[in-house]
Amino acid sequence: MNTPSDSRTKKLTSLLQQLWRSVFGAADAVALPTTGVARKSASWVPIRTLSPRHKPHIARQLRALPASDRYLRFGYAATDEQIERYVQGLNFERDEIFGVFNRRLELVAMAHLAYSVDPQWATCAEFGVSVSPHQRGKGLGAKLFAHAVMHARNQGVNLLFIHALSENVAMLKIARHAGAVVQRDGSESEAYLSMPQATLDSQLNGLMQEQMAELDYQLKMQAHQFRQWLNTVQEIRQGVRDARHSSRGP
User: Fold this and answer.
1) What proportion of the chain, given as a percentage, has pLDDT over 90?
2) Residue 100's closest CA among 217, 189, 14?
3) What predicted TM-score, i.e. pTM, was given to this entire model?
4) Domain 30-238, architecture per CATH
């Protein structure tokens, strides 16, 4: 038999679910880059700048990639140990690492924008990306690439470089769609994208997107913490009910 408190909990849970769908439904939807056909209601994707504290998220996302995806991302079938070394070696002060989190605060896509350490190529940067298999077909790779292009441009980069296996059709398609020149050399390809100088509009756009993505992440964090608290309350209530039932005896 349900108690009044159980009924209130169910109503609260239902209201939270409705609020969650209304707030984050659009954030999870994206537009297909080649057709412009929107899924759900919006094309904006909350892309957040990652920091050293997100290393465990990055490692989990990369380790979850199947062998074929690891091969396309790194150019070889990276082992878990090699992925761990890559993650530990990320330079968050020099480079920029971006990511997309789902509603459960799982990192489902990440991109690495690596700036050149050679003064001769100070205005050059390299782009790499990985998208979890269950998130394919949503345009996340293209969104991360566009985000990286904007940030690189605002940092004074005028040439973005992509090194990919020639069989990495998806990545090369994104590069070509953005206007990059792709040169193929056997099993490997290189794409070069020249970018215009930063403008006030591009700087403001980058700042706005960062702020929106940070707000989205904080809201997801609060909702995640509230769900955990609600589950704990429900477990406690269930334990109390079980204890009462046991005390009554058969």
Assistant:
1) 31
2) 217
3) 0.64
4) 3-Layer(aba) Sandwich (3.40)
